[in-house]
Amino acid sequence: MENPTPVPPPIPAAAPAPGPNSGSPSATLPAGLARVSELRALLGRELARAVHGMEREVDGTFAAILARGHVLLEGPPGVAKTLFARALATALGLQFSRIQFTPDLMPADVTGTSVFHPTEGAFHFQPGPIFAQLVLCDEINRAPAKTQSALLEAMQEGAATEGGTRRPLPQPFIVIATMNPIEHEGTYRLPEAQLDRFLVQLSVGYPTADVECELLEQAHARSPLANPAELGVRAVTGAEELASLAESVAGSVRVDHAVATYVVRLLCATRQSPALRLGASPRAGLSLLRLAKSMAALAGRDFVTPDDVKRAFLPTLGHRVLLEPVEEVEGTDARMVLERILETTEVVR
């Protein structure tokens, strides 16, 4: 495990964001929400020292963390998914652990096990790598379902059970998992129950030509073994402040009845779509609203708009719905269906 970098003193809060009913700054915006958008800027600056062209991933991951959710990063090898997670842990000042998922990985390798100490004549629990604040599950689809199931309790309840004893995990507890979508040999499809534990799924693609040129110019001389701290990434917050900000987002960002009605319309549209054999569940709707609230906070607002819901829709529901087989044969994917639903579902005014 990597120890968290010392957390610097808090930075003064940013100027209040516009209020819901006027274009002038709102004097009532809670200090925690004002800090959210400022912290996003600081986080982006620090992560840019290690990774390039991942602003969208920074936004999506930070929003998920503020919503107390977990993140699944899907992308081909070599696009800095692992480095991104390590750099994020350093910038957030969180205790970090990495689990490399392989076909022979056992549940006890994740949660830990009790070890017998002959000198004491007793068993002592040896915590596994799951006992950290930010856990990177690298290539999660390379482990069988038995091992993947070891994560279910941890991700849903923030605890791990071993030998009949339930042990709480450090807080905040965040799982960032990576998955390679193009390899199939030696991989296992994630069960729907496992996928549902991830608040968002983000696709990490190749950088643009300009970004890749900048990356090559800046990174060719540095050591491939350099950790984020050696690349200049420093902590801009810590576990205590992250927990406080998550509470501010959950309690201070408002959701009007019209927005909730719009979310229900979207959920019903997924269940009624002939292209989907499994629509979005009520839990998916809650996840959608939680992420939309985080996105509103990142925009400097204490209320959710339909545009926040639209931005959260694909990352939250893309991995929670299932296509009809005939749609897959025709080359349609779930995101294409969801985009059509967004276009055709009327916004409640």
Q: Explain this structure to me?
A:
The chain is α/β, with parallel strands linked by helices and 349 residues long. It has two domains: 1-18 and 27-251, P-loop containing nucleotide triphosphate hydrolases (Rossmann fold, 3-Layer(aba) Sandwich), CATH 3.40.50; 253-349, Orthogonal Bundle (Helicase, Ruva Protein, domain 3). The chain is 42% helix and 14% strand. It is built from 14 helices and eleven strands. The protein has helices at 31-47, 55-66, 81-92, 107-111, 145-148, 150-157, 192-195, 209-219, 239-252, 257-272, 282-298, 306-317, 325-329, 334-344; strands at residues 71-74, 96-100, 112-117, 122-127, 134-138, 159-162, 165-168, 174-179, 200-203, 276-278, 322-323. It has a five-stranded parallel sheet. A two-stranded antiparallel sheet has the order 3-4. A hairpin with a 4-residue loop joins strand 3 (112-117) and strand 4. The chain starts with 30 loop residues before the first helix and ends in a 5-residue tail after the last helix. Mean pLDDT is 86; it is low at 1-27.
